[in-house]
């Protein structure tokens, strides 16, 4: 990668030195910034930065790109720690059906829902899935995402789940985004296992997990713990098996009901517990003592019209909070992390600083990438956004729907 010098930066924000873990509580509101700054990138890493008047003479002009960022901000690229971007088809017909008042059952009968996503996916080749996912990665990159976690879960058969994970493995190599892979075979029970849930769990544990470990196809294991999906007991069993195969948990819990999944996730050393639209006192106590990150998905609440996670309350209780997109065809057809920042401020009442930290450094920690990216730190990978000319950082969440990203610089 070419060395880069960015000069005349209006505001270099998200500076964080000597930090070891996700930001908690009041620290989430701290966003260090230098006005009228420069930043130098050498060999893909942040080499040094400071105020313009301190910019040292350049020794080597060869192989150096100089960017004038007058009027523009430089911030860390977004780290989106929860997505499902390998899927067969968008589901906007379902969206229209929902507007027209059809029930979930009626929509399912017409060809909607997770099970139908799985049927569509079974008919696509690995190459077709790879091509469409690459396009989605380019799309989220244009909105400033530099690292992303991608889940399986639209396969629900041994063949299809492994197909998705092999696609994600190819994406890791082909894309300039940094990618983490999560195995979500336990997303829903396939129709043929409706009366035999234990049979599908045996497939996950005995047939999928050994291949995933042998081919190094995933970093994490996920389960959708919810009424009519996977029970807390089934969550416990699947997580234990995943951990045995070297996968740490990152799980779907508390979207519609509180079943005790948060505690089970923490017990198994979950990197994050995600959704948390419902969150009670027990969960608060558990999470305030845990290293596990609470990941909220405001775009999903927006799209489904369900409650937003109570992140303000979580911060008061010193819980580490990250925000992610949940990009998927059913409940969140958008991976725009600037919009996530807008919803965080408008609906969850986070400050722009809290929103930015939740989607950069804490998102990075929610993928165990916090030591490598997510902040302006000497020695970290240069994963940065140069904004368009904007009046202040608060303009980004304020101007919802606008793309404030002019350029993204990424290194892996
Ligand atoms: Zn999800």
UniProtKB/TrEMBL annotation:
Residue ranges annotated for the Amidohydrolase-related domain, each copy included: 73-389
A GO CC term assigned to this protein in UniProt: cytoplasm
Residues annotated for 4-imidazolone-5-propanoate binding in this entry: 91, 154, 187, 255, 331
Sites where the protein binds Fe(3+): 82, 84, 252, 326
Record localization: Cytoplasm
UniProt main location, coarse: cytoplasm
Molecular function GO labels: imidazolonepropionase activity; iron ion binding; zinc ion binding
Family: Belongs to the metallo-dependent hydrolases superfamily. HutI family.
Protein name in UniProt: Imidazolonepropionase
Organism: Putridiphycobacter roseus
Gene transcribed to yield this protein: hutI
